[in-house]
Amino acid sequence: MPIKPSLCIAAFFASFGAAAWAQMMSPSEILQEISKLERVGSVLHVAAHPDDENTTLLTYLAQEERLETAYLSLTRGGGGQNLIGSELKEELGLIRANELLQARKIDGASQLFTRARDFGYSKGPEDTLENWEEDEVLGDVVYAVRYFEPDIIITRFNPAAGPTHGHHTVSAQLALRAFRLAADPNAFPEQLKELDTHQAKRILWNGFGRRRGGRGGPPSSNLQAESREIVNLEIGAYNPLLGESYTEISARSRSMHKSQGFGRAGRRGSQMERLVLLDGEHAEGDFLRGVNTSWEQYPDGVSISNRIQDLKTSFDVLAPWQSLPDLLELDVALQGLPDSRFTQRKRSQLRRIIAASMGLHIEARNQSAYLLPGSDVEITVEVVNRAPVEARLIELEAIYFDSSVWPNRKSLSRKENLDIVLSANQVETVPLETSLPAGFPYTRPYWLEEAPSIGIYQLANRRLLEAESLPDPISITAKVEIDNQVVELDVPLIKVTSDPVKGEVREPVAIRPALALMPESAVTLFEDGRSKEIAVRVTTNRDSISGMLEARVPSDWKVEVANPKFSLSGEGDSKLILARVTPPETSSEGILAFSAVSTDGMRFDSSLKEIYYDHIGRHPLLRKAETKLTRLELSRAGTRIACVLGVGDTVPDTLDRIGYTVDRLSVDEITEEAIAGFDTVILGPRVFDAFLGLDKKFDALLEYVERGGTLISQYNTTSFRAKSRFTSPFPIRLSRERVSEEKVPMKILNPEHPVFNFPNRISDNDFDNWIQERGLYFASSWDEAYEPLLSANDRGEPPRNGGLLVARYGKGWYAYTGLSFFRQLPEGNPGAIRLFVNLISLGHGTGSEN
């Protein structure tokens, strides 16, 4: 099959190999990689989200079966919750996408995505397909099949609708449709400019866990009764070259999903998986039946296969460089094959082996972790050949990522005809100078360069669907001559520091704007017609800059910047500038947009946030410098609130902004004396799940309520991993019931209740414009002491009345709510704020104490 010209070795390393090969391999790992060369064939695993994948199956396929293996996650998981921080939506999606990439480095598979956006929990396929613009995501799945050319497709979920996330079901349905459509030249014909049609051998459903029935479908007995063909697979084997069982390796891979709390201990011993045939040729007990995994199908394939066999048997783990002549001859043989994506991948894999066999270390460093468009760049390239073999560095080239032309890359500068002898274990340092053009692209996630719709990300070009990692902003291509043969390798431009605790820390160099505008609040609330000052911090990333801040608001709002000029004297210098905003007299929402113009005519309008966690590294996130403005009619009762912070809890920040005095307490700080003076105590989302000992502190909370306090408990899960037992004054049984459609009507069950009347009168309008969902983890049953106040249901489901329960206890009030206040309040949703304030006000106004 002819491959399109841009699928070259360099492009492969830029998208996947640079980070991978830089992790030097041990001799046994090199031998494992040589063993992988021996087999051809590929498998595509398909599911909906980060963490849906079966990491043990991926590990087995990549390391034991030695097949080219990839996981296609339709989304990046931004609609979930976050157990390690406060990031949600696109910020969480950036975290979870990188957790996937880190997981793949461990289990040995590749990673692909579609443009589908995780818009939150979906009860069924209809809602999912509507939000995902069905043909758009179907086309992306077809593209993935045509690009990756799998022999086998394995879904994680059942394509038959069942009691599971709608995204899960749709991921299997789209994979099943793509299985046939990828081979149809009339389906998505525009893709055939870059790709060819492809027909996989079969598609199977990996619907069985080791200890449970099928995920998203009926148990095994039902499937067998339907006479579906089932393949049993033992995937718990031990790999002596890697020194671990596949279940141990996959536990480390699975544990990369830290934001979802999926850390897992390694297990050893047998593990069976079952694969159910969905379409394609019969397997007859062998999921690879009919798949040619040998080289014999290719011209000169027998010779290539023999060469790999000889490499395996002659490889010396104490002197891996002795295999270099044979490795180089194999590379020449692969170059003689017809050009295809498959042969390009095999050559890339081989070149990693060549570099590792000679202990070749190439590192490109910059003194700063970030660069500015229009700036000069001094790069230091360090090259060390740690093997007693002859090698020469003959060329260096600095190249950069541009989403509009990817997978092609643009050149910055090149040093040719170097002819630097790489003597054994001698460090060679080569300077490489270049300049970034004035319009050089900033570093940002390529799927966030444009604003997404509710269900789809926008990409600068379709080829980005082939990206198997975050492409390096700048990388260095080094050409090394070994035994008269040139090997081309890419490495990312990095900043290296020494941390007294972590040791050596490597960070990819990012491209930043010279000026960043960071509003101090993402949302500003106006409870009346009085104006407020909104602060924006202007920070320079260059030596000095002067200019003027500008602010814009909708026509019914007013804004004035009294002192808009700034003059910043050095890198990191900043100035806080105040914009006075006056709201309209009636309820309204709008955007306050900041921009700045420097004295040299440059315009800046971006905020810069860096997301950093040890397991994924540092990732800059550039967005428009904006603050959401919300004018709402709001009255409050009570002033002092104690918040026991839950998981990713930013609700207290909203309460600060509307005038409450908020104390943030840890579980350990809860005592009768400590909380006695508060008007209301709020337990944050998932606080019982995340913190030890809260159930043992509940007597103090009950005493507080009995004496007249108000206690609000936000949603908690039914997880068996919860660190504290969910506790309430009267029995409540929590469930996984939720209302995932954010626009369904909310029925007020008792309009006369104080929650709907004091201090704000709640109407149907207060449930407009909620985001993502109404609520989750509703109560399914409760003691008669509770009064359910709201009822709602997703389409086709019975009413769910357990989303807001209120009870008197002694002189005080207790409320349990599964309503998603943790999403609505940070977004400045007026109705949700008014309702939450009424909950806070229980017991503090006329009628509510009765």
Q: Roughly how much helix do the residues carry, as a percent range?
A: 10-25%
Binned strand content? 25-35%
Q: End-to-end span in angstroms?
A: 79 Å
Number of helices: 18
CATH architecture of the largest domain: 3-Layer(aba) Sandwich
Structural class: alpha/beta
Q: The CATH topology of the largest domain is what?
A: Rossmann fold
Question: What kind of sheet is the major sheet?
Answer: 9 strands, mixed
Overall geometry = globular
Overall strand count: 43
Q: Given this structure, which CATH class of the largest domain is correct?
A: Alpha Beta
CATH superfamily of the largest domain: LmbE-like
Number of domains: 4
Overview of the structural elements:
The protein is an alpha/beta fold. It folds into 4 domains: 41-279, Rossmann fold (3-Layer(aba) Sandwich), CATH 3.40.50; 361-511, Immunoglobulins (Immunoglobulin-like, Sandwich), CATH 2.60.40; 515-630, Immunoglobulin-like (Sandwich); 636-841, 3-Layer(aba) Sandwich (Rossmann fold). It contains 18 helices and 43 strands. Strands 10, 12, 13, 14, 15, 16, 17, 18 and 19 form a 9-stranded mixed sheet that branches. A 7-stranded mixed sheet has the order 3-2-1-4-5-9-6, sandwiched between helices. Helix 6 packs across helix 7 (166-181). The longest helix has 19 residues, at 89-107. The N and C termini lie far apart (79 Å). Mean pLDDT is 92; it is low at 1-22, 209-225 and 846-850.
